[in-house]
Amino acid sequence: MPLEPSEVKHIASLARIGLTDDEIKMFGEQLSQILEQFEVLNELDTTGVAPTGHASGLQTIMREDLAADSLDSEDVLKNAPRREGEFFRVNAVLEE
Amino acid sequence: MPELNWLSIEDAHAQLTSRQISSVELTQACLDRIDAVEDRIQSFLTLTPESALTQAEQADRMLAAGEGGPLTGIPVQIKDVMCTEGVPTTCASRMLENFVPVYNATAVEKLMAQGAVMLGKGNMDEFAMGSSCENSAFHPTHNPWDLDRVPGGSSGGAAASVASGETIYALGSDTGGSVRQPASLCGVVGLKPTYGLVSRYGLIAFASSLDQIGPVGRSVMDCALTLNAIAGHDPRDATSVKREPVDYAASLGQDIKGLRLGVPEEYFVDGMDPGTRQAIDAAVAVLEGLGASVRPVSLPTTRYALACYYIIAPSECSANLARYDGVKYGYSYQDTDDMWEAMEKTREYGFGPEVTRRVMLGTYALSSGYYDAYYLKAQQARTLIRQDFDRVFQDVDALVTPTSPVTAFKIGEKVSDPVQMYLIDVCTLPVNIAGLPGLSVPCGFSEGLPVGMQLIGPHFSEETLLRTAHAYEAATEWSAARPEI
């Protein structure tokens, strides 16, 4: 069963991706086909099984808290779509 | 004398250090080959012939001074998912069409420090999501063995450029098979190292717990020499592992007598190409003839790997790709003053269909109410899949499987059916889930198309895999076969 258009729209809004009506229909069908493939996992008894984070077993890494140079701010801003002086320029976040 | 662009790294290095050839000549031979075939192969997204020749001149000066290493002066293609300072890095996406990195990925930096010559950036599926290179936002790449067919993916450019003699070797990346599967489909060697062996710094993130950079070459030795150059701990990647450096080329040439190999029945799936099955069976017989013992083994959790992968990878992808908001770099929709509209339009126009599909899928799997049922369940399945491998590696040193259940398919054949496309990676995904090393080496042909054999070993068993593949390669002629273009 395809996902409801309202469900697809909800996911798209969480992901902040605009979709056309055709895409909403297409993803509703495709996502449900893929989700059906996931049902096989219900066969697995995972009671008490610890989830895997790092696949070759590394644990949390600690290092000395030393100051070091990072990228130059001019370099950081080099690919900015819009800048103003030393800053990225963005649309207004807070409404009046 | 064969054309210089077909030399192995080993032979090129010998001829460069003895001054029989110069790096400029070697680089020019690759550029001439690119001129001759690239309009049909289309393995590059960006070509950098001028800087390549400048780097070749620098390499020649290093070589004249007796400096450098095994890769000095040798041309390489870099998959366009790795940051290259001053050279566009697009990830084959409209989102990064105009992105020019201000630093090099660690793996690239290590090659450049040795005096490598970069020919350009390799085509790929957008953000490394795909198995055919058809998801590139710019153009598909063609398989050198049959131009109507895909080269595999996502590192399709890497495999096609190496197989067609456009470059000596290439760097790819492998999240679910993206180095090994195209290597298999193009008849070259590809290695996915153990998770954590090669730094991911500057590798544009897709699924951070699965991504690994790996070499593509025309021989096992070329992959070993490349791995020597790129492996090692990097403080800029907290997931990279501290280990004593290993010379991966040193054990090549040693025999494999007494090596214990397992053949997992679950990797010979329904719908597998019969010619691929025959080629793998024959390859197993060759390995036995070389003194390895072979036994059937079982990895029952294999049937859960696809679902596990397609929950974990899109979930991590949806988190990683949240950074493309049109503010700091990349494509930015400007025709509105509304912040949310700008962000939604930026991502709608910047991402192609497969990337959008995976971001949506991952967002769904991580969303409120579904996290335990999908992401947590998949991470637990991941533990069971790892334990399955741990168990068989108590009895065998490595596993032998097909790399791909099918050979190269026609361009356009599967692109509209995501589930069919995902099934292509069924033999390679479990390796990334468990963080293991995997290698694909050519092992024959099925109806004129290359077949690859995959070797899988325990964590950090690259030496065993390379030694085994090298012994196999030396006993057969497959790696010497070249496509007629």
Outline the structure in words:
The complex is a heterodimer of chains A (96) and B (485). Helices cover 34% and strands 4% of the residues of chain A. A two-stranded antiparallel sheet of chain A has the order 1-2. Chain A has 3 helices and 2 strands, in the order αααββ. Chain A starts with a helix and ends in an 8-residue tail after the last strand. In chain A, helix 1 packs across helix 2 (21-38). Chain A is mainly α and 96 residues long. Chain A has helices at 5-15, 21-38, 73-76, and strands spanning 83-84, 87-88. Helices cover 38% and strands 13% of the residues of chain B. The radius of gyration of chain B is 21 Å and the shape is globular. Chain B folds into 2 domains: 4-258 and 397-480, Amidase signature (AS) enzymes, CATH 3.90.1300; 303-379, no CATH class. The interface between A and B is large, with 49 and 74 residues.
- What is the name of the CATH architecture of the domain at 5-43 in chain A? Orthogonal Bundle
H and E string of chain B = HHEHEHEHEHEEHEHEHHHHEHHEEH
- Secondary-structure class of chain A: mainly alpha
In which order are the strands of the major sheet of chain A placed? 1-2
Total count of domains of chain B: 2
Strand content of chain A: under 5%
How many strands of chain A? 2
**Might you state the CATH topology name of the domain at 5-43 in chain A?**
Histone, subunit A
Supply the helix-strand structural class of chain B: alpha/beta
CATH class of the domain at 5-43 in chain A: Mainly Alpha
Shape category of chain B? globular
Cα-atom radius of gyration of chain B: 21 Å
